[in-house]
Amino acid sequence: VYEYPDVTVDLAETITVKTVKDLLAKFVPEDNPLITKLGEDEMIRLSDAFTKVTYVGEAHLDLAQYLRDCWKAYTPTKYKAPCVAVVQSSGFGKSRMVRELAIEAQKSALNMKVLYMCARVHESTGFPKATSELRGWLFQEGSEVEDIASRLKTIYVYANKHWADVQEEWLKLFTEKAADTSVKAKLSDETDTLEGDTSTEKNPNGRIVVLVIDEARSLLAEKPDKKNDFRMLRNALRSVNKDIGHRGCIFGVLIDTNSRISDLAPPLLLDPSSRLFDGELASFAPVVLAETMDAHWDQYCEEKQAGEDEEMKEDIQDQERAKIAMYKRIVTGDASQAWHALCRMGRPMWYSTCPNPADREDVINLAANKLLLGIPPSQNAYNKDTMLGVASMLCRLGVRPHSTSALASRATADFMAILAYVNFKREGYVTSYASDPVLALGAMKVWYELKHGLAKYILPQLKNLLLDEALDTGGVGEIGEMVARILLLLAMDTCVMGDKDFSQCYHTIGQFVPVQDFLDVLQGNKERPIYCKGMYNAEDKRPEINEWRSQWEGWYVGFTHYVQLRLEPNEDTLWFLLGRQAAGIFPRNQYGADLLIPMFKKRSNSRPEVLMMLIQVKNRSPVDGGFSRAATEKLCPWFVFGKNSDGNSSAGKSTGEIGGDPKPLSSTDVRDTIRIYMNVRGRTRDGKFIYATTMKDNLKPKKKGNASEEDPVFTICLRLLNRVTYPFLSEDVASILSNMVESQYDPLGLVEGDLDYRDEDEKRNKDVSSYAKLSLTAKRDKLLQNARKALAYAPG
């Protein structure tokens, strides 16, 4: 209306209200009958985690300082309201952080008091429990902004009268249901009378009453007359702080998993107070709580380092190198110790809730439920609300939504993506599925708990997101390279689970398996044909291949998810990945390889060894051009990692000892590397074979080294995507993966791939009497002809 005077106010208002309702509907919670209410035992466990587990870190002190800084900066002519949002996905301890702030506020130094309110709609689905009475008092039915402002003033008055002991009373709101009733009763009896403020300048150290509203998205529900509690609260905070004056303030803190709570400004038509004559008012930047990531793991490392002897302490100068030493220790040590360490990584929720190693099944189930909006994996859990469980795929593949896509905020709010940053204009959200090993194990359960769930629900939904270009895959080969990640994960899962159901494998998932077992699953148990340069038969190389395979006796591998590699990896990177049960994704500008899988060997009388598999992925069809060089030279460590003219990595030399410089991977002998070449195009024939070359085909030019130029070097090749090549795949999974790869090239490929999938679905259901065979009426040739016409398909 301001810019287009021809548009009537009534029309603009109607459009605006409809738009806001549509937007809010996407992330304001509604009653979901599938959400399981927590039983008494679960609530006790959450309560213990919330109150008895030692808090790690200083996030609460950082929040206190930020609130003080915001109060100092706040003026009603520049900012929308004295209010900030605390945002992050579930499990980072947002509620615990403000409780620690409240405990700290009992001390006089902060000159701050915290009143906690949980506005959760579902009272028994989380902890702390909802403070329904306190919320009902503040946001009474029919209230106007002035009414809420009056109650906010009452809160400030009451706190000032009882400043010495009010925090002890309010602290009970986090844990005791009775406190909800008692605090509400005392505030109801209090007046909103406040003595006049005669000060002319703001007191930077004045008293701050922090009003915390947890699960704040529930305030966004629309009410009659185009109102909602969020909008009225913001304006009430502006109003009451004018009355309080310069002596102090009441400051709002809104907590939620949904990052949009930080930037949902009401339309100007509904709230003209948010507009200045020369521009819009600003909102304070949200607090993105990421500090608690790995908090228990960091503490674990510090405790172990404190127990080392003085000689070890002198060797370990750098904290990050000390962590690498810890990763090495848990990888090569006892399996139970490794699990205990794994639970400490990622979100603090895992270890806080299930600190006992015997709780392995419980913590994995918790992680799985979190990926499905709190619903245990079942037939009903894979629905449009849970996006058919696709978060389990994003988590394991290490992909994230594009920052400007609508999925970015929802992935954090509902599907456990980690929020890293909210951009200046609140138009983009940088999120990721960073390495969270327990969440990856929960994702495994989502994959396998429901038979055919992967092919029927999860993979088709992933394909839709890819074709909609909603995801940043992080890799070089886009869809094809991501399909290769899935294939390798499925092979790894097969090694761990075999033919068993997931429910029978809680004690084995997350463990390492022999490298030879992994290679056998990936290639099949039959002997693979051998070819040499020019694709001539090289069966005479069989003894050398058997000798090469035997060198991997005693080596182990294990990964449950992928991590994006940003810096040039070195030996420390391999131990980091092993410790977190992860494989690596090279950045888009990486030479040669696309993926990296670390492997290790325990040594009883010397230091453990660590090496790697390098994987290159291609999507070439019908001719795999450039294969020979791609499968040899481009998968050599000197090519993948070498940056300098002498072939050495910029990472520098290594002593191989803890505390020394990490060993550069460019110096790794190609014969000590397992090289895998994957082409994920094609749907028939067996694409497995071993490609045999010699050292002279793999050495850096003009740097022959001491190796014999005729020494054999091998590459495992998997050049077609089908069940013959990958026998561990089911028919339906192989079909949908092939369909995904073929769909990325052009729209007609999408049509052909979908028709292939339809044909195979009809074959699988040929004996089902109720199955509707669409090919009888919608003929393949006719559909293709129609698609070519619509796409203006050029001949060739």
Automatic annotation (TrEMBL):
Stretch list, region Disordered: 647-667
Domain of life of the source: Eukaryota
PANTHER family: CHROMOSOME 15, WHOLE GENOME SHOTGUN SEQUENCE (PTHR33266), F-BOX DOMAIN-CONTAINING PROTEIN (PTHR33266:SF1)
Protein name according to UniProt: Uncharacterized protein
Lineage: Eukaryota, Sar, Stramenopiles, Oomycota, Peronosporomycetes
